[in-house]
Amino acid sequence: MSATLLERARATVQAAKKRGAQNVRTSVYRNRGSRTEWRDGKLDRLRQSTRLGLTVTLFVDGRYSSNQTNDLRPEAIESFLDETIAATRVLAKDPHRRLPDRSRYGGRFDGNLQIYDGPGAKGVTAADRQRAAQELEQAARAAPGADKIVSVTTSCSDMLGESAMVTSNGMEGSRQETSFSQFADTSIRGEGNRKPAGWWYATSRHQAKLPSVESIGREATRRAMMNLGAKPEPSGEYPCIIESSVTGRLLRGLFRPLYGNAIQQKRSFLADKLGQQIVSPILSITDDPLLPGGHGSGDFDGEGMSTVARKVLDQGVLRSFFIDTYYGSKLKMEPTTGTTSNLVFVPGDKDLPQLLTKLKKGILITGFSGGNSNPATGDFSVGARGQWIEDGKPVRPISGMNLAGNHLSFWKQLRELGNDPYEYSTIRCPSLRFAAVQFSGS
Description:
By secondary structure, this protein is α+β, with helices and mostly antiparallel strands. The chain has ten helices and 17 strands. The protein has three domains: 2-31 and 45-105, PmbA/TldD superfamily (PmbA/TldD fold); 118-226, PmbA/TldD fold (2-Layer Sandwich); 236-440, no CATH class. Helix content is 22%, strand content 36%.
């Protein structure tokens, strides 16, 4: 199928050039997804979808447009190009819109990124998904505290994606990728009308690398039980540990100001910080699009530029922004890439229980809710829940608290990284231990 998509992309580029486009980038994709949802002993929903589409980016007489269609019949594409090229000609000129320099297509990684599991994609049946969803519920209901369960919802899904990209200045590439996911959500009886909930999930590029359904289901119930009777602690400054599965929530607020659009539009508190130490010196992060099996891995980016691993933070020093060709031109900066891929951390040497021994009194954050982060100032505020810790041990659950601060000061309070990077995300961050930071509560 990928070869067919590549031929379609080539033909579309040539057809657009014949109609007067000076430069063209075309992407053609086909995604097939299946999902089984199970609730309280019954099949709740089956979903299956196939999406086929084409995106054409046009550069016509100094003007630019990006256009999409789901009708890939040859005659439909011809009509689509006639209309979009005519429409592009009446737009305002933008001298910063261009394809990447063709030198950025060279040196592409030609190894196996391990993001495609053909046998897994072909081998999973509807019966397999339903059986896994049932077993996830059974595992959740077999965990300690199951007598308090009100409801269990589970799901099992998989995706096969194929795509191809061609540009008029020499880039061609195609990609096949898969993902497999399993999820469980447990709600339990709490005080009064409260129904504390807990969830857990896993996702992998390879079906065989998913953890057992038993571990996922039991973890969902365990996390629900952790929230039973949760209340806020008094406001104050407390040391804390942020569990690896939720660290990405705060990191997104730190990384948004690194994007070209935020910098160009004067909405980045980090715009003038390149080469400066902005976080604790123990924090080093690499954006690695070539990570084997990574959820964000790929040998070319959204513009077709060949991808490379790039240090973003090196011992706390900011080393790189995320700049695409357009914002590179506007900012007079060398393009890097327009977005993150896999954020990989230099981990520490302790697991979460060992990190907890460092807390005499403090908070283990196991979940965030709501909140905001201002990319222009670095100020953030986010709801937090978790466990109150004394002498390294959980004492009682907490909720209804707020963690607030400014990224430039907050991340300098980081004292230790765990050795447990979260595998089920593009942000592979371990658990993080901080010195005292500000919480608001009761």
